[in-house]
Write a structure and sequence with these properties.
The protein is α+β, with helices and mostly antiparallel strands. Helix content is 17%, strand content 34%. The two termini are 30 Å apart.
């Protein structure tokens, strides 16, 4: 007995060392236990290098925080924003102050909150938007004037986007300074014919109705004009282009001071024209046109070079997104990158040495590596190597870069690297130093026993192979059977199966500790596998996507360690649409689904996004209705939880109410949760919303998908195996 006692005493420290901590929802959503370390990169000098914090005070002589600011080029004045108030996803308004650094003087630009305060290129003026009008403030005289005066809520907007442009064309400041600051080009949106959407903002008295313009699929858009304002001559001209049912998704100035590029697009978004527009007259001619049998995807990958002769851009015109260099005269056309791989980002354009630095989905669609190519497209070098996810930040001189590298199981490691140009002009990189290894996070994920995810290849019934990842439960035993939760987004051009840390989240790890297999599969329609794979879903969103998820569930169901009667699906937004299809059209294989803020019919969603992939409901009624979960509620056999925020300005709460109406009509039991006054993100730390939502979903999954091999609610998690 004494020998046994001493043996136990000897083994106790080893057991303590081997014991891994249980991941909790508090760790993830309250304590920030698994936050990585921030590395600044080439972020420039701190504002307090130029400005003394004690010198910057508001009208009440209180110090202003210097966190939200814009420094002018001369670094002698700074715009400081205070009390930022979010409007929609990308828009906000603030009190704005101008601080003169040498004079140590601070003035408030306006007594009300304003938007988009921006220095002119020479720093002598500030433009901004207030009450849907564009203003110009002259710094030397301290005077301001309204460039427009017809702005009115829900009728006319100048210099700022309407809701649908902001959300789907992904910008909010709708004006641009010319290169020398002689002109301001701005959007004018006439929303008069756009239908209004309302939702209730709940309070302690009689509530409020919030009303704004939201064009649903098939309905009228704003009429858009582009105006060019000549500042010196106080003259305003309209850009001339074909009117009608069209979009203007971008405007950009060339390096020539009087040439504006107006991007014109038809409503189907299948025809893009770049119109070279004279700033003095508004007249234009076609500089470039691209047509596509599906749609042309608009982005910001356009550069008009300093030589005034060339433009650089990305396009899918040859089946994969690649780089092109075209002459503005239309005579020279060069494809700079080639192959069955996609350019995902342009990191920098070195015009002096005629080189482009860019990131490519290589060697697999799940990876990212960085390359450099010359302006002829003949000399290409790779700056990063291997499988994994490289995100780089280059310095202004293109002599160094920070490499932020991770993979699906390894937190980000940051290195500083030299860019080395050999005598034969070949380019390579040389490690200078390792800046950060994320050691604290690595220690945490070891302490809490994070599982290792593995990539899987899943065949579908169409002959394609889908990319996925799988996270197995802690203490996985192949002789046992485990429930599976699919975590899926699946929308056009998206990607969840990436070889980067964070693709498998701490919440996924928590579920694995509780005994669940967690899986993500990128279905047909997702990105970085070429145009045809992405655009195959055209005119029938949801059809091929859910068929792929069903195929994947059947494939996993044949694995010996999978409980095929307990396969669930979780998703948010487009992913919620997919989860709703999983429990309806996929009812033979999916036993449970959690749909957060789901689209339940594309008839309820905005027209720019929806019609890009579906055309209008008038043209394509079957495409809209055949794959709407609302029309398949009678097929449900399993458990369904639908969650929505009542103040969702993007995917309206209407989607949930109409889905529930259909569920009731089909006499289908369901569970629901709604979050008052919450938008599409359904978040909030101070009011506990974030923690409550993720607790709700986690407990529901455990209660409705658990089996004998999973933790039951309110029981300790299964302890991960010590390594």
């Amino acid at each position: 007995m004494m020998r046994t006692f001493f043996l136990l005493l000897f083994l106790l420290p080893l057991a303590a060392i081997g014991q891994k901590k249980e991941i909790t929802l508090e760790d993830i959503y309250k304590k920030g236990t698994f936050r990585g370390e921030f590395v600044q990169g080439f972020a420039g000098e701190d504002i307090e290098t130029f400005v003394k914090a004690d010198d910057v005070k508001d009208e009440d002589d209180k110090k202003l925080a210097l966190g939200d600011y814009t420094l002018n080029t001369a670094k002698n004045r700074v715009i400081i924003r205070s009390g930022r108030e979010q409007i929609y996803r990308r828009s906000s308004k603030s009190f704005v102050y101008l601080h003169d650094i040498s004079a140590k003087k601070t003035i408030k630009l306006d007594n009300e909150k304003i938007m988009h305060a921006t220095f002119s290129p020479d720093g002598s003026k500030i433009s901004y938007v207030k009450d849907n009008n564009l203003y110009l403030y002259d710094i030397s005289s301290g005077t301001k004037k309204a460039i427009t005066t017809d702005g009115k809520w829900n009728q006319v907007i100048n210099g700022n986007c309407d809701w649908v442009y902001e959300e789907e064309f992904e910008f909010t400041r709708a004006y641009e300074w010319s290169e020398k600051g002689n002109y301001l080009a701005y959007y004018r949106f006439d929303e008069s014919n756009v239908k209004e959407y309302q939702f209730t903002q709940f309070n302690d008295t009689y509530n409020k109705q919030y009303t704004y313009k939201y064009p649903k699929a098939g309905d009228d858009n704003s009429t858009v004009e582009i105006h060019i304002y000549d500042i010196a001559n106080n003259k305003d001209v309209k850009a001339q282009y074909e009117q009608g049912d069209i979009y203007i998704p971008r405007i950009k100035w060339t390096k020539a001071n009087n040439q504006l590029i107006v991007y014109w697009m038809n409503r189907h978004q299948s025809d893009l024209k770049l119109l070279l527009t004279d700033a003095t007259t508004g007249s234009s001619n076609i500089l470039y046109e691209e047509k596509n049998k599906y749609f042309v995807e608009i982005n910001d990958d356009w550069w008009f070079l300093k030589d005034g002769k060339n433009m650089l851009f990305t396009s899918e015109m040859n089946g994969y997104r690649h780089l092109y260099l075209y002459g503005l005269d239309g005579k020279t056309k060069t494809q700079l990158t080639k192959g069955d791989f996609e350019v995902t980002e342009v990191n920098g354009v070195d015009e002096t040495n005629k080189r482009i630095y860019y990131t490519m989905a290589f060697p697999t669609p799940m990876d990212r590596n960085v390359f450099v190519t010359d302006f002829s497209g003949k000399k290409t070098s790779r700056l990063t190597a291997g499988q994994g996810w490289h995100r780089v930040e280059l310095n202004d001189a293109f002599t160094q870069f920070y490499d932020f590298r991770s993979d699906i199981n390894t937190p980000q490691v940051v290195t500083l690297n030299d860019i080395v140009v050999e005598k034969n002009k070949a380019i390579s990189s040389k490690l200078v130093k390792t800046v950060n290894e994320n050691s604290k996070l690595k220690d945490k994920i070891n302490e809490y026993g994070y599982g290792r995810a593995e990539f899987i290849r899943v065949p579908n019934s169409k002959g394609d192979t889908l990319n996925g990842w799988m996270l197995k439960p802690a203490n996985f035993d192949a002789a046992k059977k485990y429930p599976v939760l699919f975590c899926n987004y699946g929308g056009p051009g998206s990607q969840q199966v990436g070889n980067r840390f964070g693709a498998v989240s701490s919440w996924h790890q928590l579920l694995a500790q509780k005994g669940f297999i967690v899986v993500s599969v990128d279905n047909t329609g997702t990105g970085f596998r070429g145009e045809e794979f992405k655009k195959k879903t055209y005119l029938q969103l949801g059809k091929f996507e859910i068929e792929d998820q069903i195929d994947a569930a059947k494939y996993l169901g044949n694995m010996s360690f999978v409980d095929k009667d307990n396969i669930g699906h979780w998703g948010w937004s487009y992913g919620g649409f997919m989860s709703s299809l999983a429990i309806t059209k996929g009812s033979d294989v999916f036993s449970a689904a959690v749909a957060v803020a789901p689209v339940t019919s594309w008839r309820y969603y905005d027209n720019i996004y929806t019609e890009r992939y579906m055309r209008t409901p008038q043209e394509n009624p079957k495409g809209y209705d055949d794959n709407s979960p609302i029309n398949h509620t009678d097929k449900i056999k399993g458990k369904y939880l639908i969650v929505h925020g009542t103040a969702d300005d993007n995917v309206h709460f209407q989607n949930a109410t109409q889905m529930i109406t259909a569920l009731v009509k089909s006499n289908i039991d369901f569970e629901s949760a709604y979050y008052p006054n919450k938008n599409h993100g359904i978040s909030g730390q101070m009011d506990n919303t974030t923690f409550h939502l993720w607790s709700k979903m986690t407990n529901w999954i455990m209660e409705n998908m658990g089996n004998q091999n999973t933790q039951q609610p309110n029981q300790p998690a299964k302890k991960p195996r010590a390594f």
